Amino acid sequence: MSRKLKTALARNIIKVTNENIDDEELIHALLEEEIYVNTENEALSFGDRAADFLAKFAGSWLFIISFCVFLIGWIVTNLYFLSHPFDPYPFILLNLILSCLASIQAPLIMMSQNRQEEKDRRRAESDYKVSLKTEIIIEDIHYKLDRILAQQTAILSNTENSVTEVEKEN
Q1: Which of 50, 63, 116, 124 has the fewest CB atoms within 10 Å, measured from its CB?
Q2: 25 or 47, greater pLDDT
Q3: Could you tell me the pTM of the whole model?
Q4: How many angstroms separate the first and last alpha carbons of the chain?
Q5: How far apart, in whole angstroms, are the C-alpha atoms of residue 102 and residue 111?
Q6: Which of these ranges, 2-16, 66-80, 141-155, has the smallest mean pLDDT?
Q7: HSE-CB for 132 with a 13 A CA cutoff
Q8: Largest Cα–Cα distance in the chain?
Q9: With bands split at pLDDT 50, 70 and 90, how would you rate the model's confidence at 11?
């Protein structure tokens, strides 16, 4: 990644518009900036909590088993135990109840899924920015380390040359 692109990305992450800031100050500003967004501790409305609960409950084995027990109980009660069943064989009332349940349950589950999708999108964006920040900082560390190694090599070379000159003089 070029230094120009790295600087532009760092400015974008921390939203620095001051063009006079140098790369070192930009890296320090990037280090100080907290990028991660916690999406778990958001305040939810009553409707949001209800939709989440319904989506969680409707997708559980408890719901499936209890609903099967309810259906079997409804059918058995109307076929065998009642002399005058309130919902005779084609079970029209049961079909109406199931249709109403589905028409209410589906939008609530979709609301919960849409909110979860928005939360996942914000989390992915936050993770991307954190990864980008980390990449920029690691690249800067490598750049500084390469400069230190080059300076160290130059110092070592100068020291060896000085030692060689002193040995020749003696």
Answers
A1: 124
A2: 47
A3: 0.64
A4: 51
A5: 14
A6: 2-16
A7: 21
A8: 125
A9: low
Q: Compute the distance between CA of residue 24 and CA of residue 4 in angstroms, rounded to an integer.
A: 13
Q: Quick check: 114 pLDDT over 80?
A: yes
C-beta of residue 60 within 8 angstroms of C-beta of residue 44: no
Residues in the chain: 170
Amino acid letter, residue 123: R
The DSSP output letter for 161 is: H
Q: What is the DSSP string of 118-139?
A: HHHHHHHHHHHHHHHHHHHHHH
CA distance 140 to 144: 6
What are the CA-CA distances from residue 120 to residues 55, 62, 102, 114, 116 (Å)?
A: 17, 27, 26, 10, 6
Name the pLDDT band for 83 (thresholds 50, 70, 90).
confident
Six token digits for residue 26: 């930009």
* 75 Cβ neighbours under 8 A, 6+ residues apart: 91, 94
